[in-house]
Every structure is written in structure tokens, then in C-alpha cells.
Amino acid sequence: MSGPRARCRRLIGPLVAALLGLLLPADAGAALLTLQHVLLALVVIASISVVGIVLVNALLVIPAATAKLLARSLAQMFVLAPLFGIGSVLAGLIVSAWVDVPSGPAIVVMAGIVFLTAWAGLVRRARRPAERAGKIGGAR
Fold it and tell me: What is the percent of the chain where pLDDT is above 90?
């Protein structure tokens, strides 16, 4: 093991290097990746004191996360993320005018609903083959 990544790993430790994105071993597993995402989210939220900026960041992150769930390639993700963002903005503005609530939070809530719907669809789709095999929910 030589090179800049290996030297960095020896210098600051494998966990810190992985959390900084300098090195993520293939066997790190989902737990380390989840920890990295949670820490990143906490740092971003803790460092921004203006609520409007947090809403802007949410509007940037949520559509990209939704696109990552559904895209099969990076090119698809680049197409889907703006579409989810534009759709969330339009739906949030309509809901904001209809219910008479502030537009910023309404937009972010709509983006969150789109993300949760996509996530729930993926969970349901993943369970479907197991249900057909009779592993979940009893034999049919």
C-alpha cells in the first residue's frame, strides 16, 4: 500500500479517512456510509444559522437524493434531480397558495413527500419477490 491515499489513511486513521471521503473500502458496509451521511447532514445544519439557507439546501439535497434512489446511472440522476426539484417547487407553490402557508416550507415538504414516496416504492418493490416466494406474510 503506497500512494497518497495510503499515506493519508496511516496519518489520520481509516475511520476518519473514510468519513472524509478520502478512502471508502469496498467492505466498509452500509453502516459506515450511513454514518458519513448523518455526520455530513449534522455539520451542514449546525453550520447554517439562517432558516432560508436551510430550506435552499433541503431543496438542493432532497431532489438529488430522490434521483439517486431511482436512477440507474449518473446520467439518469442528472436528468431526474432537476425534474424532481422543479416538480416540488411547482407543487409547493400551488399548495402554498391553496392552504395559505409560507411557500419555502411548503416546497420542502412537497420534496420530502416525493422522496418518501420513492423510498416506500423501492421498499415495496424489494419485498414483492419475497412475498411471491412465501417468505413474508405467509404462504399464498
Answer: 29
